[in-house]
Amino acid sequence: MKYRKEVATTAGALACALAIGYVMQGGQTTTSSSDGFQGAPLANAEAAILDVGAITLTAAKFDEPQQSENAPSVAPKIAEPAAKAAATASTDATETAPLPEAEAAATCEISAKARSVAAAMVKLTLAAPCLPAERVTVHHAGLVFSQTTDANGNLNITVPALEKEAVFIVAFTNGEGGVAQTTVEDMSDFDRVVLQWKGDTGFQLHAREFGADYNSEGHIWSGATRDATFGVTGRGGYLTRLGDPSAVDGLAAEVYTFPVSASQSSGDVAVSVETEVAENNCGLEIEARTLQTLSGKDITSKDLTLAVPECDASGNFLVLNNLFEDMKVASN
């Protein structure tokens, strides 16, 4: 039989802060498979209930992996061409001298830009010519996820905004980074919920609109994300996945958006956090953070730690309800 263990959580949330070298003000934080979402039989058919252990709301830490104390320090990439030029000049006086320091710095300048687009989304672009194929962490109003620049040091992504005055901080592991800001005029037209985690935990965000069953038209999850056109036209919500899935121990997030001001339907939207018991997480404690903003108002945050059952329960799903405020929608 297919089995989903539901776990209700009603405890309060803990506030969290991101120590990333910048101070932001203006917003308040109150503390796939195409075959569908399938369960699997319990390994022990007599085990009618999975032992999910304790679900603790706690201050989950989503830090980038720390460099080992014995590992060699990484010199800024700007130093490499300068060193090569200096070595060439010392062996052959006729070679061209290296670029002046100010000119070299200009060619390695990091530039971040943000532009508001439809459905309260933001086009975020980053240019870091001296940091190609490097991991970068994006911070926005409590939302945190990892990305990787391309071979030219560029990054182009679209991010759901959580605040009208949206500030984005991009930070590289060497301490360099940039800040971009934009105004999202239609922020009040959308409700948003966020689930974010670190590493391969198996967490998933699920939204079932107006009583929809799993794998039906109104079931929105990583296997059926839709796109922003549903939000713009009021036909329903959509899911945005953020983060580089190839990054080891990367920070990832899923954001569900619903167009409360333009919805063509009315009723409740049930949002849950789910995870499959699998080889990568069975018997472990896994951590996640949720964020929620209704019509662009104050952001609420909850951090949780979930004890996953042992591996003999692999293939079954844990469902965490009551982590979010009810999303009640009136048709327009």
How would you characterize this protein structure?
It is built from three helices and 20 strands. Strands 2, 3, 11, 14, 15, 17 and 18 form a seven-stranded mixed sheet that branches. Strands 1, 12, 13, 16, 19 and 20 form a six-stranded mixed sheet that branches. The chain starts with a strand and ends with a strand. The protein has helices spanning 79-91, 101-107, 228-233, and strands spanning 4-8, 29-30, 55-57, 111-117, 121-127, 135-140, 143-148, 154-160, 165-172, 177-183, 191-198, 203-209, 219-220, 238-242, 251-258, 267-276, 285-293, 299-307, 317-321, 327-329. Helix content is 8%, strand content 37%. This is Translocase.
Radius of gyration: 23 Å
- Main pleated-sheet profile: 7 strands, mixed
Subunit organisation of the chains: single chain
Kindly estimate the percentage of residues that lie in beta strands according to DSSP. Answer: 35-45%
- Principal-axis shape equals globular
Compute the number of helices: 3
Quote the average pLDDT: 77
Range of helix content: under 10%
SSE string, helix = H, strand = E?
EEEHHEEEEEEEEEEHEEEEEEE
Given as residue ranges, the uncertain stretches (5+ residues, pLDDT < 50) are 1-54, 65-97
Q: What structural class do the secondary elements suggest?
A: mainly beta
How many beta-strand runs? 20
Termini gap: 41 Å
Protein name: Translocase
